[in-house]
Amino acid sequence: LLGQVLDQWFESEPLKATLATDAVIGAMSSPHTPGSGYVLLHHVMGELEGQRGAWGYVAGGMGALSQAIAHAAAAQGAHIFTEKAVCHVLLGRDGRAEGVALQDGMEVRSKLVLSNASPQITFLELISQEQLPKDFVQRIQQFDTRSPVTKINVAVDRLPNFLAAPNDCDGQPLPHHQCSIHLNCEGTHLLHQAFTEATHGHPSSRPMIELCIPSALDPGLAPRGCHVVSLFTQYTPFELAGGQPWDEQARNAYADKVFDCIEAYAPGFKASVIGRDILTPPDLERIFGLPGGNIFHGGMSLDQLYFARPAPTYSGYRSPVPGLYLCGSGAHPGGGVMGAAGRNAAQVALEDFRRL
């Protein structure tokens, strides 16, 4: 249990609760859920530019990282098609993957197919289930994709001013504005309470909030004096109690609750808001193809990791369909901006390609 690990090393409850947020981030679990300790390890393993456990900000936003990967691939001769939805994977008479068919009727033939989509989309939508073992299909159908995350993107006309560390008179970003700011994390019991509410179909009354101000590091993201604020919040259920829809009223009610919490730490925040974009779990599924809105393509619980991700005997990136590989977050080692699954899958695919 995460609580036991934190209690062993730390005494300060706010510090323990702040560290605990990385043990439940993107997970429909609480700090008291067995296995939550691994999720914390997953988020602090590795290093960035020699600093262990560090995270970094991508100048230009996360899209800049995608563009960098695209430019590197194009430099090696790759052809990239955007806004071209894949309809299904093409299979030969021998059952091997032979390319993909696009929704506009175009067919792209290839000797190997690597899918960065979730296991659910890859194997339940892009492949005929008759081509897959029944136990494999059942495993993918039962893969836990519950997600507690609602993402809120905010535009503000001035820098947030926190009571704990007031702004300078010139309004320039201070060191804490350039970090990840955790709110409603004074104690792990608050995280557990927020989780419990969501399990009963109710958005948390006091949500866990991770607040970042990218424009404090990257001024080009907003006009002079203005800023963009990224809010990663939980817990919000995919399905609301009583079958209530995640309509505009429900979205705005939850966002207002989040903003009220931020206002308590940084008075004047609500008055500074000039625009907001609210993405609930159903929105994340619909817009980004994340099953259940899960940012990791599936829960990072111990029963869905290592040799069992996405299914036992299929953790090595190969799938039941020869020539088809899984290279996204639904493959080992799971989610996070590290590229490990893609790199490992590419090595396996290249090894098989040399044998063809």
UniProtKB/TrEMBL annotation:
<dbReference type="InterPro" id="IPR002937">
    <property type="entry name" value="Amino_oxidase"/>
</dbReference>
<keyword id="KW-0285">Flavoprotein</keyword>
<keyword id="KW-0274">FAD</keyword>
<protein>
    <recommendedName>
        <fullName>Pyridine nucleotide-disulfide oxidoreductase domain-containing protein 2</fullName>
    </recommendedName>
</protein>
<dbReference type="InterPro" id="IPR036188">
    <property type="entry name" value="FAD/NAD-bd_sf"/>
</dbReference>
<dbReference type="Pfam" id="PF01593">
    <property type="entry name" value="Amino_oxidase"/>
</dbReference>
<comment type="function">
    <text>Probable oxidoreductase that may play a role as regulator of mitochondrial function.</text>
</comment>
<comment type="subunit">
    <text>Interacts with COX5B; this interaction may contribute to localize PYROXD2 to the inner face of the inner mitochondrial membrane.</text>
</comment>
<feature type="domain" description="Amine oxidase">
    <location>
        <begin position="33"/>
        <end position="170"/>
    </location>
</feature>
<dbReference type="GO" id="GO:0016491">
    <property type="term" value="F:oxidoreductase activity"/>
</dbReference>
<comment type="similarity">
    <text>Belongs to the carotenoid/retinoid oxidoreductase family.</text>
</comment>
<dbReference type="GO" id="GO:0005759">
    <property type="term" value="C:mitochondrial matrix"/>
</dbReference>
